[in-house]
Design goal:
Layout (H helix, E strand, L loop, with lengths): L15 H28 L5 E2 L2 E2 L1 H24 L7 H32 L7 H5 L5 H31 L3 H43 L5 H37 L6 H28 L35
Helix pairs in contact: 1-2, 1-8, 2-3, 3-5, 3-6, 5-6, 6-7, 7-8
């Protein structure tokens, strides 16, 4: 069920198949993300953590695994009516799942901010392009402020929401739920702006970088396809969820619906999330199919997949593209 669920969370019998479908879809998403995370960590030796922050791709996959796992737990609790009086636990599971996908997108966007300066050193307009990009310390500060602040607010408000539900305090329940949905919606709006501006800029810079390579361009083309797929998928997610969360917040406060519209909207949102995240995962998998034994002399750039958060030189003449 969506964060904008009924005060009494008990799915009607005709809607139970929707819960089963959502559980299956989330399980596929979780298994795919976890398998790819293990592959990149142990087969490709990709780092998960470097210099006080998660790496863009592996960090994204880790948060996706947590998101889908918490969604599965919550949906199972509701569909099979497990621990029906554990309102606080259910509320935490519900909103934590949505918070984790926010953290996944934030991790990817942080990687974009780190990658762009490394792709502008060859351009005469590098200074103009880079002056709008936050410095490393700023990216680090904003990232962790977002994680800690949003995570704390989601946890506290989820506990309050569950508590108010347990004592049948509907007004307080609706207010706490509305605030939660508004927080998620605002986060998604900011993400959408970042992906629209800086995601497109990263694609444009990478396309220019392809022109500077000599000989084999397959890795760059593979990276471009992966980058475009991930950007498109995440933009669809944040666009839809920002609208849906905000709409549900308004409806939950202003409208006391007596039908199952929230559950139906939840089904659409869950399926949209799974499909788009799976599209991003497939984009990463497609990149893995390209050969990595590329001549180092053909490579003069570092891209988001192998960006390390250490303070290294922008010019990396021996770097290779990890797709």
């Amino acid at each position: 069920m969506s964060p904008n669920s009924h005060f009494n969370i008990t799915p009607s019998l005709p809607l139970l198949p929707l819960y089963y479908i959502m559980i299956i879809f989330c399980a596929i998403e979780s298994l795919s993300a976890f398998s790819l995370l293990l592959y990149k960590r142990f087969h490709d030796n990709s780092l998960l953590w470097s210099d006080r922050i998660f790496e863009p791709i592996t960090g994204f996959l880790l948060w996706v695994v947590l998101h889908s796992s918490f969604r599965i737990c919550y949906l199972i609790f509701v569909a099979f009516n497990l621990m029906p009086n554990a309102f606080i636990l259910r509320s935490i599971l519900n909103f934590s799942g949505w918070a984790f996908v926010q953290f996944a997108i934030a991790t990817y966007i942080a990687g974009i901010f780190k990658a762009i300066p490394k792709l502008t050193f060859h351009r005469q307009t590098a200074c103009k392009q880079a002056k709008f990009i936050p410095a490393y310390q700023s990216v680090l500060f904003i990232y962790w402020i977002f994680i800690i602040t949003v995570g704390s607010l989601i946890f506290v408000l989820s506990c309050l929401r569950g508590y108010f539900q347990s004592i049948n305090e509907r007004n307080s329940f609706v207010i706490s739920q509305g605030i939660l949905l508004i927080i998620l919606s605002i986060s998604n709006i900011v993400f959408n702006l970042c992906l629209f501006k800086y995601g497109r800029l990263l694609v444009a810079l990478t396309q220019e970088s392809v022109k500077l390579t000599n000989g084999r361009n397959e890795p760059y083309n593979a990276y471009l396809k992966k980058l475009k797929t991930i950007n498109f998928a995440l933009m669809v997610i944040v666009s839809w969820s920002s609208i849906s969360f905000l709409s549900w917040a308004i409806c939950s406060i202003k409208v006391k619906a007596k039908f199952d519209l929230p559950t139906i909207l939840s089904f659409i949102t869950n399926i949209c999330y799974v499909i788009m995240i799976m599209a991003a995962i497939i984009g990463i998998i497609r990149g893995q199919l390209y050969p990595k034994d590329i001549n180092d002399t053909d490579m003069t750039l570092s891209t988001i997949s192998n960006v390390r958060w250490s303070q290294t030189s922008i010019v990396q003449t021996n770097s290779t593209i990890e797709t």
